[in-house]
What does this fold into?
Amino acid sequence: MAPTTSLRLISDRDELSRELRAARAAERAVGLVPTLGYLHAGHAALIRQARAENDVVVASIFVNPTQFGPTEDFERYPRDLVRDRALAGAEGAAILFVPSVETMYPEGPENQRVWVDPGELARHLCGASRPTHFRGVATVVAKLFNMVSPDRAYFGAKDAQQAIIIRRMAGDLAFPVEVQVVPTVREPDGLALSSRNVYLSPAERAQATSLKQALDLARDRILAGERGALDIEARMRREIERLAPLGRIDYVTIADPDTLQPIAGLIEGDALIALAVYFGSTRLIDNMRVVLEHGRPRFL
Amino acid sequence: MAPTTSLRLISDRDELSRELRAARAAERAVGLVPTLGYLHAGHAALIRQARAENDVVVASIFVNPTQFGPTEDFERYPRDLVRDRALAGAEGAAILFVPSVETMYPEGPENQRVWVDPGELARHLCGASRPTHFRGVATVVAKLFNMVSPDRAYFGAKDAQQAIIIRRMAGDLAFPVEVQVVPTVREPDGLALSSRNVYLSPAERAQATSLKQALDLARDRILAGERGALDIEARMRREIERLAPLGRIDYVTIADPDTLQPIAGLIEGDALIALAVYFGSTRLIDNMRVVLEHGRPRFL
It folds into this structure.
C-alpha cells in the first residue's frame, strides 16, 4: 500500500466542487467510488480499479437513510472513519467525500419529493423484501453523480441488482458516466466480503459459506448440462437448508439480468443467479452470472 | 431581432457534447431553454432571458412521447422547425438541439425503466387528469440536464406545476442547475400564449379569455379581503361557466406552491391559483401566484 499523504477529507459540497473544478479544467478523468463506509478489501478493489482508469479518484462514504427500511440497521450500521481514511488513502483515492445527511438532503430525508424510481427493476430479488431500498440507492447515487460529475463510477458485483439498476439509471437518464462493475472479493472460504459480516456470530459465520456453496452447486449442475431454472433453484435451496440450519432463505432466484424477471423455463443466453439468506436479522447476499454462448456456459 | 447567422442546428448527442466542451473550457455560462417547439413569444421571452444571463444559449425542441397520455395530442402536436429556427436564432440562441426519439430514448420510450418520479407533486392539478405526464417531463428534463450540463435552465410560469416540479427535481437530485421561471406572455386580450392555442375554433378562441378573467376575479376578491380558498374557487368556476359555455372545467384549485396540496381553509402566505379548461379536446391552463406579506397580497 502506498502512502496516504495526499488524501483530502471533504464534507462540504461547495468545497468538493471547487476541488474538482481544477481537475476538470486540467481534463483529468475523475472516478467515483460510492460506499457506505466501513471499507474492506472489496472496496479496496473498487478504488484500485478506479485509480487505474482515472487521474483522480473520489471515494464517498455516506450511510444513506433513505435506502434503509424502518426495521433495518441504519442506526447500527458499522462506522470507522479513521480506518476508512487510511484504506482509501492507501489505495490512492485523492478525495474522501463524507457528506452529512444535511448536505445530501438539505430539506431532510423526509422532505425528499422527487425520486429516481427504478420501477419494476426494484420489485424483484432484494426489492421484494426491501421495497424502498433501490429507490433510495438510485436517488442518492444520482445526487453523487451530480455533485461529482465523474467520468466513471465503480460498484461491486456482489450487489448485482444495485449494479444493474445504477447502470440502467445512467443510460436511461443520460448521465455521462460509465458504470463499471468490479468482481466480488471473497474470504478464503468463499464468503463474499460485506460490511455486514461483522454482525455474524461465530456459528453463523461458519454457515455463511453456504451461499457460495449453493452458487458452486448451481455452476456444477449447469456444467453438467442442466438448464431448468426452477430445478436448479430448488437444489440450491436444499443445499442451503442442509449446510446452514441457522439460516433462513429470503430468495434464491435465477433471473434475466436485463429485466430482473425470474426465469421460469430454461436458462438461455444470459442469467443472474442470485440469493439472499438471513442469519438472525443479518441478511447476506451473493450471486453469479452465467452467459451461455452456443450452449457453452461461462461464469462471471 | 438580431441576425441568425450563428445558430447551429444539432441533433446528435456527441456533437452537442463536443460543441459545449469548448464553451465550458472557456468558462462560458450555458443557459438551456427546453421546449416542445412551435415557438411563440413566450418561448422568445425564455430565450431572451437566457441570453441576458448566460454566454451560450441552447434551446431544445423535442416532442417527448412519454409526457403525452395515450389519448392525447402527441401525433398532431404542431411542428414548424423552419420558423422555430428563425425565432431561436433571432433571439440569440447559439445552438438549437433537436434530438430524435432514438437519441433521447436509445432503447425506445417503451423500454425506459428508470424514471424521475415527482411522487405526490405529480398527483395534484394537471396530474389528476394526466397521471404520467410529469414523470415524463421530469425524466426528459433530467436527460437534457445531463446532455447539456447547463448553468441555468428556463421554464415558463404558465406551466406552474411543471416549473415547481423541475425546480424541486434540481434541488432534490442535486443537479447543479439554477431553475429560472419566466413570467407568462399573453395575447392582448389576456389569453396565455400556448402552442396549443392553434387548435381553437374562432368561437372557442373568443371564450378562452375566460381563464384569465377568472384569475382577475380571484385577484379582485383577494384585494377586497376575501381569503376563503373554496369560496374563491367556486366564484372562479361560476365565472368560467358564465363566460365560456363551450368550455368544460378540468380543475380550479388554490394550492400550496410547495406541496401542491389544495388549500381547504384560508389563503395564508404563498398560494398558487391554477386552473385548466377544456375546449373540445384542447386543454388550456393558466395560473397566478399570490404572496401574502403581513396580510397584504402581491400577485406574480
Observations:
- Chain B touches chain A at residues 13, 17, 25, 104, 106-107, 112-121, 138-139, 142-144, 146-147, 149, 165, 168-169, 171-176 (CB under 8 Å).
